[in-house]
Amino acid sequence: MNRCVSVGIDGAAESMAAAQWAAREALRRGRPLCLVHGWTWHPHPASSVPAGSTEHEVAVRTLSRAADSVRKAHPGLPVTERLVPDSAVSALLAAATDSDLLVLGSRGLGRVTGFVVGAVSQRVIARSPRPVVLVRAGETAADEHLPAVHGISPDEIGDTPYREVVLGLDTRHPCDELIEFAFAAARQYGTPLHVVHAFRPTAPHTADGRPVPWPEVLAAQERTVSAVLRPWRGKYTDVSVVETVSPERAAGALVQAAREASLVVVGRRAATNHVGAVTHALLHHSPSPVAVVPHA
């Protein structure tokens, strides 16, 4: 099946940024793009519905404006429009099932320099059977790339190397779906994969009760990370991998790495229907797009 890249559209500026990011991602993957808008009839339409218009007419115009904008920016990309008479959450979850990934927008950077994640996005991320990428308002093609040399034209931005892809790795639960998504993204972008493993330092002891020296504790963590990644390095021999093992909170380490990333990849246990504390923190504080990958 030729799965598409789907993106949720609601007419807001953040969904347009998500649509443009999704269009670029669809081109990178060689996939069509599907714009999805869910709407429901109400006996008393919201004040945002203009006089003389129906909710359905507003929904049609919302989707058409987004599609026209994407087609103008990417004339060679196959784009379909899906207007779904259902709640936004149900429409997006249904679209995710048939997609490579689902892209959603956020309301941008707030006072704490992070995403403002709406209720719809939170519910979809927690329940989606496929990876979901959250894109902040204001995200542009230039943000995915390393700083361009002075005087470069907008048309030349795509020739500038991509920023690295960052993977948050928990060696206690090294999930294949998550790791493969990150390696594949790094290969697709032609950029290094930066694997970040953070751990809370403890004070292990030897069999005779002596504390294990700190360098040995750190070295053991580094060996574990290398062992987890070894088969993936063998599969993706063209992907350069940088490993960072850090004795700190995972959320803080990932947010720091996200400042120089084109994409940050983290996981979510599919069986729980909620995101973990680290992923939740990253969704609210990352300045870069975040991919949440469900896994067993």
CATH topology of the largest domain: Rossmann fold
Question: Helix and strand succession?
Answer: EHEHEHEHEEHEHEHEHE
Spans of at least 5 consecutive residues whose pLDDT stays below 50 are 108-116
- Our Rg estimate from Cα atoms comes to 21 Å
Provide the domain count: 2
Describe the structure in your own words:
This protein has a 10-stranded mixed β-sheet, with helices on both faces. Helix 2 links the parallel strand 2 (33-38) and strand 3. It has 296 residues and is an alpha/beta fold. It is 37% helix and 20% strand. It has helices spanning 13-29, 55-73, 88-97, 119-127, 176-189, 214-235, 250-258, 277-285, and strands at 4-8, 33-38, 79-84, 99-105, 132-135, 164-168, 193-198, 241-246, 261-269, 290-295.
Short description:
With 296 residues, this protein is an alpha/beta fold.
Protein traits:
single chain; 296 residues; alpha/beta; Rossmann fold; 2 domains; 37% helix; elongated
Question: Layout of SSEs?
Answer:
Blueprint: E1 4-8, H1 13-29, E2 33-38, H2 55-73, E3 79-84, H3 88-97, E4 99-105, H4 119-127, E5 132-135, E6 164-168, H5 176-189, E7 193-198, H6 214-235, E8 241-246, H7 250-258, E9 261-269, H8 277-285, E10 290-295
Parallel strand pairs: 1-2, 1-4, 2-3, 4-5, 6-7, 6-9, 7-8, 9-10
Antiparallel strand pairs: 5-10
Helix pairs in contact: 1-2, 3-4, 7-8
